[in-house]
Amino acid sequence: MSWGFFVGMGHWVYVIYSGKLDRYYVGESEDPVERLRQHRDGLYKGSATSKATDWESMLEMPCADRSHARRLEGWIKSQKSRAVIRRLIEEEDYRNYQVERFRQEGVAAPIGIGASPARGAKASA
User: Fold this and answer.
1) Residues 6+ apart with CB under 8 A from 112
2) Which end of the chain, N or C, is more open, meaning fewer C-beta atoms within 10 Å of its C-beta?
C-alpha cells in the first residue's frame, strides 16, 4: 500500500529502533520526521528514548486523527512483543489490517498476535 494519499493527515504511529539498546520504541506524532530528530537529540530527558542517540525509523503508519493513532499505539504497546512489532514492519497485510482495525472510534479490538487474518492470507478491503 502506498501511503502517499495520507500526506497531510493528522497523525502517524511510528516505530524506531536503537541498535545500541537493541530496543524498539513505538510512538505517535503529527510529524514523525521531526519527532525522530527529537528522540535522537535527547530532547526529553529521562524519557524511554533518552539513553541512546542512534534511533532509526523502521515504520510509519498513517492514521486518520490523533484518537486513531493513540488506539493503535496503545494496542501495539500493550502487546509488549518484539514479534508483533517485527510482524508490523515485515508484513504489509498484517500492518494494513491493524491500522484499519483501530480506525473507527470505540472499536473493541481483540488482543494478541493471532488477532488478524491468517499469515499469508489477504485482508479483506
Assistant:
1) 79
2) C
Q: What angle do CA 112, 113, 117 make, to 5 degrees?
A: 110
Q: What is the 3-state secondary structure (H, E, C) of 62-118?
A: EECCHHHHHHHHHHHHHHCCHHHHHHHHHCHHHHHHHHHHCCCCCCCCCCCCCCCCC
| Domain regions of the chain by residue span | 10-101
Task: Choose among 24, 28, 1, 32: nearest CA to 13.
Answer: 28
Give the distance from CA 109 to its chain's centroid. 16
- In this structure, whether the domain defined by 10-101 belongs to CATH 3.40.1440 is answered with yes
Identify the segments of the chain with pLDDT beneath 70.
1-9, 105-125
Whether 21 contacts 40, CB under 8 Å: no
Residue for cell digits 498476535? 113
C-alpha cell at 42: 535527547
Kindly state the DSSP code that residue 41 receives in the 8-state scheme.
Answer: H
